[in-house]
From TrEMBL, chains A, B, C, D, E, F:
Reactions catalysed, as given in the entry: D-5-isobutylhydantoin = L-5-isobutylhydantoin; D-5-benzylhydantoin = L-5-benzylhydantoin; a D-5-monosubstituted hydantoin = a L-5-monosubstituted hydantoin
Family from the record: Belongs to the HyuE racemase family.
Pfam families referenced in this protein's UniProt entry, alphabetically: Asp_Glu_race (PF01177)
Enzyme class label: isomerase
GO MF annotation list: amino-acid racemase activity; hydantoin racemase activity
Source organism superkingdom: Bacteria
Coiled-coil ranges per UniProt: none
Protein name per UniProt: Hydantoin racemase
Enzyme Commission number(s) of this protein: 5.1.99.5
Length: 232, 232, 232, 232, 232, 232
């Protein structure tokens, strides 16, 4: 199968990080295409950044479709443009927050999310409502780090995330942690061992969910919500 | 006060219709600015059309802010770009679906929505969840008319809407009807009389809600969710 | 338009305070009628006080109707008698808790409420469920002050409220504060500046919501829930 | 134990009917006191009638307390004044809608309610939300009979109720029926046999729930919500 | 009436404790049958222990039915096998968690649960959702004691429970406590007095609920969910 | 990876059918182990049948663990014993209802379920609540066929299912169909084409979800809910 992973922001190192995770965990016969728009914000921190990323993101979806993608992963934890992309595509389109939340409920009776900035907390809380997952989501926490500090290694990003996970373990009565940013995709194993709790990354979850759906020969329903855009 | 009403699609006759409703119902000291993006879809029918409208919509929000707007109405029943616009603006930003749903719960213990196309039904249902209004929303119904038929008078649009309202009255046990499209803003009085049930339009509701919030000297909270976009 | 503001308790200074807020913020063409029953409890602190206020409250609604009221505000944060008053009246009847909660969700993704006594906390929590607002309500907090201490200046009422707001800001991850008592209507501006968070008062919100609904020519639906009382 | 059953309306034949049900089903050592206010509406049909009944209802609660009541049943399916009565009393206060809904969930995975008038439907729906029972409540239906027709035998009341139950059985996928009016308390056995589904009456349920709570030596919590009214 | 109380674990001292509570609080004409399976786990601590208890539990239900039971109490706070037992029996089958939660909402606007081990917390939280009681349940807390320590007097079980109740009173804003284990059935009076809050036990609640339902001549609905098992 | 698929009933032809679906859709490197208990009911139709299957099901889980299973699928749409099996196992344990519901929400904004018998409808509705999926589940429908008629070809099972799907398409406003029985696993492609709507089978979904979780190196959290059973 051919899988397109699209990072909606324009930071190529994040796109590469997602690609590396995918290459490491993908099935043998999965071909990976990873891209990002050029004219998108450097990072997605809030609703406006989401909006600014959408035109480019849609273009990448179209390019991926031309490439022959069987499924699409949108690699930003706010899951921007998910439903619009589903209208464009026939193959399944998977958000990384969505995939992580659904899959984690199979492993644990509850989870907390650790994301980057406080401003992303209400966005992720709203996603948990939208996906029916609020019942399982103990708390959405911010480590108070800018997204790009995950790339440039400033701000002691990893230490702050670890500290926030340990607080979640102590205070939230949660049984798993979801990392709330595509830029954290490379940290799961280390953090899981250090903090002694399953730590789940959405990029990896979405990759596997995409392989699952394609493997099951399932496609986006074209009845109502995700029917093709009307040509105008 | 200065109120910007922004129609996210590019059909000027709809913008004018919204403006006329506003001019007819506004407070004396409310100054109306009505606009639409030029490069937006002709109508917003589904998630992809929403996404296509957002860049232009944000530009209009910025123009309105430069004009000195005290509040902003986004005149499309899908409430596209609402949260992103709130990040940009200091004055309140009001969606027409949002305003109609909130205000109707003060007048009636339940309502049904009559919108244009089936593909918009799940979008509006999701909005009712997002706003905490699903408890009051009996049913979202489609009259099966394209948005633009409301402008060009084809399809017997008005008759189809009336028929769907009468079905709602008979089947849904609802106490009010909300019209689920900005293009229906001029139909409320006639339909309310014909169908013998309060018929609520979101453009009008959002206009008055905007005047209310500005009159109460209330502004968008800049803590977390709607804080200003981070400059990159 | 003619707006009746009815304080269900019998403390005239609270009625006056509500009237002053209304006179300060009302539209030019809004005429204010403020009253309270004579034989009502001095303050409404709990369900029994609510019940004791209702007969007098209904009489005031009737008097206001005779006066020609276009809309009615019930100025007690427990929103007593709201639905019964809607049966009596044709013009909209607005509760101050209701108005504050609905309008605040347009300005902020979440809020906490600061009220007077602990016994009012479950009442307000239940209202948040009833209005579909529990999703937005982070916490209902009590400043542990009797309602009348807001009138006689005892108990350091203002300082206690301020302290509780600051705790909410620190602990609740909320983006706005709603003051949970009509007797706090004069404190919003000062507290908002001191605590650096939007502070919302229900009396003001209900005033503006009333003007909105009347301005939009919307009236209480007389289908089922709020149909006129059956004469016996 | 001493049990007070208070019918909030002033129709003595309904009070007698409730008393007869209680005398027939009570434990041996339960002493029944049945009363109604004199100055209450003849029947409770809507929120305003509820409000009109409350002052008298509270007086009856006080009289019952003087009599030495161990528990109190409020015999109207709208459960008016429940929380206020709990503030006054130390012994448990039980609503008949409340008791019927809770107890029915032990017997059936879902139920529908058949009440008198359409205007009572939203009231009972709201009660189902308040009690956490909306998940079990398939539908609230009205037989379109005035409350008093249950007393005077007009309107073919019994036939209309039976017909509505049969519709519920056919359309609602429910496993039990709750009768939504104290005036229907004498109909359960006949209707249950005719319609071949458990038919539950709230007066009987509340009687038994009262005996249960007193038998378990449980009393109303005086922490916060139901603490004694503050003397003014 | 004849009431069967079945302790699903094989610790006879717990069965006896339940029986003693029942004998102390039962109605005069209630005959008590208390039993437990022989081949069940010594205590039910988690889902697997539940599963291991079910075959024996079903046998006890059948024996009790042969004995002529009018109702059945399953005396384990996880309410194992409740629905399956309802299929077997005609008389009502009551879970102790279920009974305690329903009855407590009549006495208090909210409660917290204090159970034995952390692993039982998500089980009880899920039950609160299942019964529609999550709205009333402030928190499920574990005293961190093995179930059997309640029998053998080790671990300072009683002190740990008391300490956890006091934490709930201080932190949870709750108005009643439910003890989350059948083995705590003898502690309610002492703990209620010491901690100054109503403390509710499920065994006692289920006993009285059983007497109520039988007294009201109500039986399990045999439509759909709890219809008799299909013979194979 | 090594995947155990356990059919909790004792009908081997159903086990074979599940195995065939798995062999057809599995990844190349997935090894399939399919089994069923010998002493289980022939089919699972209701809660009691579930209970009767659990002891054998747990034994199969243990055997599969000894075989070295990396993940486990419980192939009955009631998802019996899911949580207990998670306590026993380290590898993920997936229910077929669970997997189907989660995965379908990625493809469609809503679904209806078509199952065998009416008595299974409330069981599946309750599962949809438990998994947070009730928001997406339009309706659970029964085709009124015994489970085993899917094996022996009696009752026109396939035609009845097709008819019920077409009713769902017409009446439920759903965008996908989930087949609510493991015995329907071979029907998806044919029904999907005939009824022109995505038709989803839980066995296939659970297979792919299992491969996903193992591929992502995710295991059951051993904190609280699913920690290993305590040895007694």
């Amino acid at each position: 199968m051919k899988l397109a992973i699209i990072n909606p922001n324009s930071t190529e190192s994040m796109t590469q990080k997602c690609k590396e995770v995918a290459l490491k965990f993908k099935n043998n016969d999965t071909e990976i295409w990873a891209s990002n728009p050029e004219n998108s914000p450097k990072s997605i921190e809030g609703h406006y950044d989401e909006v600014k990323s959408l035109a480019g993101l849609m273009e990448e979806i179209k390019k991926a479709k031309d490439w022959g993608a069987d499924a699409y992963v949108i690699a930003c934890f706010d899951d921007p443009g998910l439903e619009a992309a589903r209208e464009l595509a026939e193959g399944p389109v998977i958000g990384i927050c969505e995939a992580a939340m659904h899959m984690t409920t199979i492993l644990a009776s509850s989870f907390s999310v650790v994301t980057t900035l406080n401003r992303s907390v209400p966005i992720i809380e709203e996603l948990s409502h939208k996906y029916g997952m609020s019942k399982f989501c103990r708390k959405v926490r911010a480590a108070n780090i800018p997204v790009l500090s995950l790339e440039d290694g400033t701000c002691n990003a990893k230490q702050k995330i670890e500290k926030e996970i340990l607080k979640a373990v102590e205070e939230d009565n949660c049984e798993a942690i979801i990392l709330g940013c595509a830029g954290m995709a490379d940290l799961t194993i280390e953090l899981s061992q250090k903090c002694n709790i399953p730590v789940v990354d959405g990029v990896l979850c979405a990759l596997k969910m995409a392989e699952s759906l394609v493997g099951a020969k399932l496609k986006t329903s074209k009845i109502n919500a995700y029917s093709y855009p009307i040509v105008k």
